[in-house]
Amino acid sequence: MFGTGTLINTIAVIAGSGIGIFLHKGIKKELQASLMCACGVATIFIGISGTLQGMLQFQNGMIETKGSMLLIFSLVLGSLFGEIINVFCTCHFGI
């Protein structure tokens, strides 16, 4: 059975898509850019909080780290792959 979060997410995506299609011409380019930046910043914060939650653990009254090398390895591989497929140019100028 689907969870409540899945159902709410599905309804939100459908509603947001409908609103986006309806208001596509009515939203100024500046507002679109601001909304995209806000969503990007929110995504970064969600990612950082999830990463830190998985990496930092409190044991015996001390903070211990876990998975630091995996984080570094993932960032290096992601950077290399992004350069290979030229992700910055694609994101900035479109496909």
UniProtKB/TrEMBL annotation:
Name of the protein in question: DUF554 domain-containing protein
One matching Pfam family: DUF554
Record key words, sorted: Membrane, Transmembrane, Transmembrane helix
UniProt keyword annotation of Protein transport present: no
PANTHER family cross-referenced by the UniProt entry: INNER MEMBRANE PROTEIN, INNER MEMBRANE PROTEIN-RELATED
Transmembrane segments: 6-23, 35-56, 68-89
Origin: domain of life: Bacteria
Keyword Membrane: yes
Stored InterPro entries: DUF554 (IPR007563)
